Amino acid sequence: MSIAASAAARDTGDESPRNDRDRDRLGPLVPDFARLATGGWLGAANLALGYAVFDDVLNASVGYGFTPEREAGHRVHNLDVTLTVRPFELGIGDFRFVPVYVGGGGMYVVGNEYEVQYPYRYRRIVAHYYYPTALHWFALLGGEVGLHVDDPFFDRHAFFYQVVGLDTFITSYFDNDATLDVTDVLSSQIGYRASW
């Protein structure tokens, strides 16, 4: 549905476009949302663009994360791909609640000091103990609260909270569950999401 058609529908009192979460007003090639977040092993700042399909139940995004030197001892740049499943929502007036969603993805850490594959001389020693430092997978659990807005471009503004577990820490927890607490493995991420 076009932006003009959406505005016309609102002017005539037809609220059905507001209830349809998968409108794709700008066409299939334009991303459906942008996210700005901090934490969750994905960077002190993480910016992502994504697509929502199947009535916003399935979300896929590509992000860039950055952590400054003062936070990590050196600058860290990373790229991530995230897939989330958001099976249900609750609506109260213009507010939209996604009480729980699950997901996961992969992350690539950029830099010469990170390894996609260890040099041959080290493979026998580290291959069965350490993950490559440049490639990681992660799992997440989150929730979101959003507000529908009457705006010619934006459809919804939302804030979200996620708990993220990174491969290295998840496997370390299962190998050392007597000495590690689950809070040592998980990291919180908070952020803002704009949908159009």
What do you see in this structure?
The protein has 196 residues and is α+β, with helices and mostly antiparallel strands. The chain has one domain: Porin. Helices cover 19% and strands 46% of the residues. It contains six helices and nine strands. It has helices at residues 3-11, 16-19, 69-72, 120-126, 167-175, 182-185; strands spanning 33-39, 45-53, 58-67, 76-85, 90-92, 95-110, 135-148, 156-166, 186-195. An eight-stranded antiparallel barrel has the order 1-2-3-4-6-7-8-9. The longest helix has 9 residues, at 3-11. The chain is globular, with a radius of gyration of 20 Å. Mean pLDDT is 85; it is low at 1-19.
Biggest beta sheet attributes: 8 strands, antiparallel, barrel
Which strand order does the major sheet show?
Answer: 1-2-3-4-6-7-8-9
Rg calculated over all Cα atoms: 20 Å
**Overall pLDDT metric:** 85
CATH topology: Porin
Q: Cα distance, first to last residue?
A: 12 Å
Helicity, in percent? 10-25%
Shape: globular
Task: Provide a short characterization of the protein structure.
The chain is an alpha+beta fold. 19% of the residues lie in helices and 46% in strands.
What are the defining features of this structure?
196 residues, alpha+beta, 8-stranded antiparallel barrel, 6 helices, globular
